[in-house]
Design brief:
It is built from 14 helices and 13 strands. By secondary structure, it is α/β, with parallel strands linked by helices. Strand 1 and strand 2 form a beta hairpin. The structure holds guanosine-5'-diphosphate and magnesium ion. The site of magnesium ion has 5 residues, from helix 8.
């Protein structure tokens, strides 16, 4: 394979800019353009050792650090050289050009990681963890992707593949022996299949939480006018973002702001108070509020504490509950008279109950799963492969005592194949290319 080179730090001026090469020629190319007092030639570089020296291009010279990683103990599994130069846009460009001039070719997006995959350094799902980590917006997303990258998911899947293989081998062997042995193998296989179904189903179910972790949780704040929705948004944000007045109908449009709580990204959406109105603009706002109320991952239904819930509020609460909306009933202004007590008492004014509310929000959508050591599926592609594998396993279970063993074997092999799409054993070239094309340059 050709030696590839690219700039691995973001475009722009910075303290340091890194130019990286991977491939058989990396060290030879580096030795033509980098000198250090420590070595006669960079060809003699000790692996994993940082050298201070000068990088020379046709147009200029700079002081620079260089490091060599020897195959297979490198990110890509090939010989790798990294130059850490001063981080000027033109500067790193010139260094890269020099690498290309001496025979390297420019790397595609994600090509370093793709080579790591092709050289067996990482499973495909581990590689996906790398980009997920880079694009993580919250701590929980970062943790889940870091777990993915470190092989949490791939090693679990590989374990299930191993169990499938063992079952396949046992069933195949039993075909050559008398019937008693086939019966025993079938019974063993039945146990393995129900174990796999249970565990794979757990992974599929974790998808929902996985989505919350990756994309954040949308929290709609809804209720009638003047109940303190905008004040609650401001209090949750810790700053005055939304306009608050005692004029009913102040908020007309929806307004979204994010906070992070316990590592989870919460997308808070303040809405216009829901009421009958003749005002055309406000009416559109009210329609949007209903949309948010119904389509959020979680809805905070706010009522004021100084009066009992009125008929419209009860009707609204019922209609939301009927449409399956996940809801927390919040009673605001509890610093005033306490008449309505059906819900979590808070005060946007004094801050009372706010921490408890945040806790409840995260608890309602993520529950205990966030810190659990279990793997969470955050990737649709992985979920699909597991769902396919589950279908095959189910079909194998049905066939086990009603069809010839060969039919069962077909299903088991297909299940094995489906799981292999996650780790990359059986992913098609198209899929692999499309995954790496989403990587950033230089990764
Ligand atoms: N006493 C008290 N007043 C509040 C509280 N929250 C909001 N208010 C007042 O209620 C009025 C309406 O608040 P606002 O946030 O605009 O309500 P919204 O229409 O639901 O967005 C304003 O005068 C706020 O100062 C609270 O917790 N306690
Ligand atoms: Mg408001």
């Amino acid at each position: 394979m050709k030696t590839i080179a690219t700039i691995s730090t973001p475009m722009g001026s910075g303290a340091i800019g890194i130019v990286r090469m991977s491939g058989d020629e990396a060290k030879t190319i580096a030795s033509k353009m980098f000198d250090t007092k420590k070595l006669k030639s960079f060809e003699d570089a000790t692996p994993n050792f940082m050298y201070y020296g000068r990088v020379k291009t046709d147009s200029f010279e700079d002081t620079c650090l260089a490091v060599y990683f020897q195959a297979p103990v490198s990110y890509t599994g090939e010989d790798v050289v990294e130059f850490q130069c001063h981080g000027g846009v033109r500067l790193v460009d010139e260094v890269l050009k020099q690498c290309l001039k001496y025979g390297a070719v420019i790397a595609d997006k994600g090509e370093f990681t793709k080579r790591a995959f092709l050289n067996g350094k990482m499973a495909l799902s581990d590689c996906e963890g790398v980009t997920d980590m880079i694009t993580s917006e919250s701590l929980s997303a970062l943790k889940a992707s870091s777990r993915l990258m470190q092989g949490g998911v791939s090693s679990e899947i590989k374990e299930y593949q191993k169990q499938l293989l063992d079952s396949i081998a046992e069933l195949e062997a039993s075909l050559d022996y008398p019937e008693e042995m086939e019966d025993e193998s079938k019974s063993n296989c039945g146990h393995v299949l129900s174990f796999l179904t249970q565990n794979l189903q757990k992974l599929v179910d974790s998808q929902k939480v996985g989505g919350y972790i990756k994309q954040g949780v949308t929290v709609g704040i809804v209720g009638q006018t003047n109940v303190g929705k905008s004040s609650l948004l401001n209090r949750l944000l810790g700053r005055d973002r939304a306009i608050v007045t005692d004029v009913a109908g102040t908020t007309r449009d929806t307004l979204e702001e994010c906070i992070e709580y316990k590592g989870v990204l919460l997308r808070l959406v303040d809405t216009a108070g829901i009421r009958e109105t003749d005002d055309e603009v406000e009416a559109i706002g009210v329609e949007r509020s209903m949309d948010i109320a119904k389509n959020s991952d979680l809805t905070l239904f706010v009522t004021p504490s100084e009066r009992p819930m009125n008929d419209e509020e009860r009707a609204l609460e019922k209609s939301l509950a009927d449409s399956g909306v996940k809801m927390i009933k919040v009673v605001n202004k509890c610093d005033l008279a306490r008449v309505d007590t059906e819900g979590l008492a808070i005060s946007a004014k004094t801050g009372q109950g706010i921490d408890e509310l945040k806790e409840k929000i995260v608890d309602a959508v993520i529950g205990q799963s966030i810190d659990a050591s279990g793997n969470v599926i955050t990737n649709r592609r992985h979920a699909q492969a597991i769902e396919q594998a589950l279908e095959c396993i189910e079909s194998a279970e049905q066939a086990l005592y009603s069809q010839p063993t060969e039919c069962v074997l077909l299903d088991l092999r297909q299940a094995y194949f489906e799981l292999g799409k996650i780790t990359g054993d059986s992913a098609s070239e198209d899929i692999i290319d499309s995954i790496f094309s989403k990587f950033c340059l230089g990764k």
